[in-house]
Amino acid sequence: MTATLASPQAGVHPDNQVPELKDYNLYSSDPVLRRAVARGGAQWREAELLRQGAEYGAEATLRAAEDANRYAPELVAFAPMGQRIDQIKFHPAWHQIMAIARRNGIANLPFTDARPSAWTAYGASLFMHSQIEAGSACPTTMTKACIPVLRRNAPLYALTAPLLASLEHDARDIPLVQKRSIAVGMGMTEKQGGSDVRTNTTRAVPAGSGPWGDEYLLTGHKWFFSAPMCDGHLALARTDAHGPSCFFVPRWRPDGSKNPIHLLRLKDKVGNRSNSGCEVEFHEAWGVRVGEEGRGIPTIIEMATYTRLDCALSSAGLLRQALVQALHYARHRHAFGRALAEQPMMTELLADLALESEAATLLAMDLAGRFGSDEALDGAWRRIMTPAAKFWVCKRAVALTGEAMEVWGGNGYVETSGPMGRLFREAPVNSIWEGSGNVMCLDVLRAIARQPEDAQRLLEHLHGVATAAAAPPLVAQVRQLRAALAQPPAELERQARRFTQRLALSAQACLMLQHASAEAAGAFISSRFDPDWGPVTGISSGTSEPAALLRAAWAG
Ligand SMILES: Cc1cc2nc3c(=O)[nH]c(=O)nc-3n(C[C@H](O)[C@H](O)[C@H](O)COP(=O)(O)OP(=O)(O)OC[C@H]3O[C@@H](n4cnc5c(N)ncnc54)[C@H](O)[C@@H]3O)c2cc1C
Q1: Residue 11 class from Cβ within 10 Å (0-12 exposed, 13-18 middle, 19+ buried)?
Q2: From atom 16 of ligand 1, which residue's Cα is the shortest distance away?
Q3: Ligand 1 mutation pick, 88, 149, 188, 439, max ligand atoms within 8 A of CB
Q4: Cα–Cα distance, 149 to 304 (Å, whole number)
Q5: What sign for the dihedral angle of Cα 244, 248, 251, 254?
Q6: Tens digits of per-residue pLDDT, 274-283?
Q7: pLDDT tens digit sequence for 517-531
């Protein structure tokens, strides 16, 4: 496959319009990702990741991603003669993209491959997939995240394990026992509240016991219910005896009849348009309990721990794609006598974007790798840094997909010109779902309060890296984190966003010191901890050689 990545010396097209970036390899052209895969011990996946990288950059995949978003899913609630069917009609491109996601391991890899480095391999695939079509990552990553939760119901897991482990996308709307693979979603959020799921009102009434476990009938609603064509959802409902509990609610009951889960309306979303999301009602919908009765919130939150990692990986992917598209454009487009990329202020902006992308990739991929480890530091890092990374990387993607769009000038704002609008509209959802920004910051504090020794261990580690590298601004940041923890809890909560930002930036700075070039690490630290650094006027890469930094970011 011939890459059509621009070189900075490429000639100017007569009309100064930029050729589409296509038929390139997302993996081989990303040195930061490749090094992260090697560091995470996932070299065994190298050939497959190279194949995936070419697949994601191929023109056919780009067209399918575009079509899956342009021709949005439609709700078909009723058959022609009025029977409820509660189906979603998709453009064929959606299934093409779903097949790629599934084949590339995004629905199961870390739970089907016992190697701890499978988490790193998985992270690399999701990172690339999200760059090209993020909507399909929703049902596929939820499927992966439900696997450890479903294991809590042994008979149900015995039945579903091979279907979850399959690399095939089977979209048929038939009972799961007849399928070659299944997808599973999550239903928590009701009208009264998503962050505060304790207010949920959906009721579950015991209905005996069967081969799949303890059975219940669920009545109520979900205000957000993504990917309703999944073969089942893990849903939260309260029992009269014990309160919130977690249930597996399939689309079809075991007797082969359709489960009464009524799809009411599709959400008309800002972005993420390829993925269907809807409002539903359960009318005595059949479900089996997963986990202990009354322990539904911690049971389903385990799933959210994994999907929060996914949000960080996916937003790091959006940042990478924003960088790549901005660089490609600025190297081809000329204004005022030279390529945009060579205009000093633009070089600086792009270098800042490159630093942000590298730091986001390092944080997300490093976090993924720690999910496969039992080491004490990795556990502490996972518990505290998962919500911190989700908060910070997703927020940065919201800001910088907008900045990258502007690098394209007016073309950036036009859907038919390229993917910039889609990247921009995609970014906020990762920040909102699976726990919005403030809730993530509260989660960081909650993790610290629950196991203060985790925070000790994590800050000790960050301090060690900062002092070994003789990086005084970073040492000062870690000192401030420690001082913040000594404050009364109410004060700390008031400042939770600032604390989480400082924590995420400090972790990124340490990772840059450990794994990036000395030039990039130095630039990251001197810019991010400069009081003048800010989202607009303070954009500064802090490097004396921004052009060198850009050359290193783009190995195409
Ligand atoms: C496209 C899309 C798909 C979704 N799919 C699903 C799905 O499949 N399944 C599902 O269960 N849910 C889904 N959701 C719901 C999503 O998880 C919730 O919207 C999200 O968790 C926030 O809940 P909420 O909307 O009720 O907002 P609220 O809980 O009302 O929060 C509103 C704001 O207040 C902030 N806030 C809340 N509590 C505090 C506090 N104590 N201190 C400070 N600030 C606070 C939040 O951070 C947020 O910014 C989806 C949402 C979207 C947008």
Answers
A1: exposed
A2: 433
A3: 439
A4: 10
A5: negative
A6: 999 999 999 9
A7: 999 999 999 999 998
The pair of three-digit structure tokens given for residue 55, joined into one six-digit string? 């697949």
Q: Per-residue pLDDT averaged across 405-424, rounded? A: 97
Say how far apart CA 322 and CA 467 lie, in whole Å.
33
Distance CA 233, CA 86 (A): 15
Residues 6+ apart with CB under 8 A from 124: 27, 33, 36, 37, 42, 45, 49, 365
Question: pTM (2 decimals)?
Answer: 0.96
Positive or negative torsion for Cα 304, 306, 309, 313: negative
Work out whether strand 243-250 and strand 232-239 pair parallel, antiparallel, or are unpaired.
antiparallel
Pairing status of strand 203-210 against strand 334-335: unpaired
Ligand 1 centre distance from Cα of residue 402 (Å): 23
Long-range contacts of 485-489 (CB under 8 A, 24+ apart): 485/448, 485/455, 489/445, 489/449
Among the atoms of ligand 1, which is closest to the Cα of residue 236? Answer: 11
Tokens representing 458 are 């994590």
* Distance from Cα 68 to the centre of ligand 1, integer Å: 25
- 440 CA: nearest ligand 1 atom: 47
Q: Report the distance separating Cα 426 and Cα 402, nearest Å.
A: 11
Relative to beta strand 213-226, strand 203-210 is: antiparallel
Determine phi and psi for 90, rounding to 5 degrees: -115, 155
CA distances from 515 to 34, 40, 145, 356, 486 (A): 12, 12, 29, 14, 31
Closest atom of ligand 1 to CA, residue 435:
21
In this structure, which residue's CA is closest to atom 25 in ligand 1?
194
* Terminal C-alpha separation, the chain: 13
Which residue in this structure is represented by tokens 């930036």?
A: 505
Residue nearest ligand 1's atom 26 by CA:
194
The predicted pLDDT at position 142 comes to 98
**Residue 192, SS3 per DSSP:** coil
Encoded amino acid at 17, one letter? Q
Name the residue of 192, 195, 246 whose CB sits within 8 Å of the most ligand 1 atoms, as the mutation to test its pocket: 195
- Identify the residues whose C-beta falls under 6 Å from ligand 1: 185-189, 193-196, 224-226, 269, 272, 277, 429, 432-439, 442
C-alpha–C-alpha distance, residues 302 and 322, integer Å: 31
